[in-house]
C-alpha cells in the first residue's frame, strides 16, 4: 500500500526545521502543520499577509478578516504579524522563506514543476506558486505518485505549462522520497509496503536508486 | 480641515466620472477585504467593457463575480480564479479576456504603478508561459523577466477605519492588496467600516496615508462573507 495523505504529511513534517519560516501550499502540504511539535518555534507564512498561522478557530473566534491562502478561517500564534501582499511577496521572492511545500500535477527529472493549468481544460491560475518556487530557499513537492488514470506524475519532461524551471529540490509522494540530481530522480526512501521495484515502475522519469535507500519510517 | 471634502455620502455618488471601458483596480483576497459596497455600486452603474485588476474574481454570486454575471467585465488581470464557475465558463467560451499574473508579480506591478516605476525585473515566471514575449535579462548569473507596472482609472479599496483626509487602517488579513491598489488609481475610492474625523487616527498606526485616497465613504452595509468557514471542532 502507498502511504496515506496523513502518513505523507507526517513524513514531510520531519523536513521542517525548528525555528524556520515555512509556506505550506494547499492540499497535502497544509496537513503538515498538524504534525509540527507545538514547541517547534516554526512560523507558518500565509501569502495573503500573515506570518504566524495558528490553529483553526473555535466557533466564537471565527473572524472574516482572518483567513489563510486557501480562504479558510484561521487564528494567529503569539508573535505573529500582518502585512500587505507586496510585503508578503518581498518575503517570498526575496529569499526570506526557509522552506515551501507545494502540491503539483507533474514534476520532471530536471526539477521542473507544473501545477497551475491544463490547456483547454482547467484554468485556475498560479496564485503565489510561481513566486514561491522562484524565491523560497528550499522547495519541496508533496503529491500522489500517479494521477487518477494511473499515469506517473514523475516524468522525463513535464508536458503541462511549467510553474517554474529547475527549482524543485525533493519530491515526496505516497510511493517514496526522491532527490533530484544531475537530471535524474534519486530514490532515497520508499513506502514500507512497496518494493523499490514497485516504486520505480510508477516513475516515468529516469530514476536512480540510492545505495542507502530505506523504507520511510511511519 | 481640507477645503474640498473627500467624503462622499454613498458608493454610487463616489463613482462620479466612471465610464465604460475603464480600468478598475480592486483590493481584496478571495472575499476578504473586498470593497463590497463599491462593487455593488459599479454593478448598478451598468458600466460595460471594464478591465478589472484583482487577485481573484470573487465567487459566482459575490464580489467581482457579480460583475461577471452581468457581463460588465471585458478583461480580468488576476493570479487565481479557481473559485468561480462563471469565470471559468466565460473564459472558456472566449467571452472574457484573462491575463493571469503570478500573485507576487501582481502585487509588485500595482506597487510599482503607484510608485512611479514603469517596469521591473523579477525571477518569477522565468521559463514559463508568463515570460513569453517579455524581455529577459541576466543579473548575477540569474534570469529575470521584465514586468510592467499597472495603474487604473479608478481604484477601489476596503479598509477598517479611515478619516476624512483618507488616512486608512486595515484589519488583519483584510489588508492584502488594498495598500498597493490605493496607490495605483488615478481616482482612489476607499470604503471603510468606520469613518472618523481627521485627528482621531493615531498617525503611527496609519497604513495608507491620505494622499493616496481621493474619495472616501462609510460603507452602508457589510456582509463580510466567509468563503470556507473552518473551525477546530469541524476538523
Keywords:
heterodimer, A: alpha/beta, three-stranded mixed beta sheet, globular, B: 235 residues, alpha/beta, Glutaconate Coenzyme A-transferase, eight-stranded mixed beta sheet, 11 strands, 27% strand
What does this structure look like?
With 218 residues, chain A is α/β, with parallel strands linked by helices. Chain A has a single domain (5-215), classed as Glutaconate Coenzyme A-transferase (3-Layer(aba) Sandwich). Helix content of chain A is 16%, strand content 30%. Chain A has helices spanning 5-13, 28-31, 85-93, 129-135, 196-201; strands at 21-24, 43-46, 50-53, 76-82, 99-102, 106-108, 113-114, 117-118, 122-123, 138-143, 154-155, 170-173, 176-181, 184-190, 207-215. A 10-stranded mixed beta sheet of chain A has the order 4-3-2-1-5-10-12-13-14-15, with helices on both faces. In chain A, β1, α2 and β2 form a beta-alpha-beta unit. In chain A, α3 (85-93) runs parallel beside α4. Chain A is globular. The mean pLDDT of chain A is 96. By secondary structure, chain B is α/β, with parallel strands linked by helices. In chain B, strands 1, 2, 3, 4, 8, 9, 10 and 11 form an 8-stranded mixed beta sheet that branches. The mean pLDDT of chain B is 96. The longest helix of chain B has 13 residues, at 103-115. The interface between A and B is large, with 48 and 60 residues.
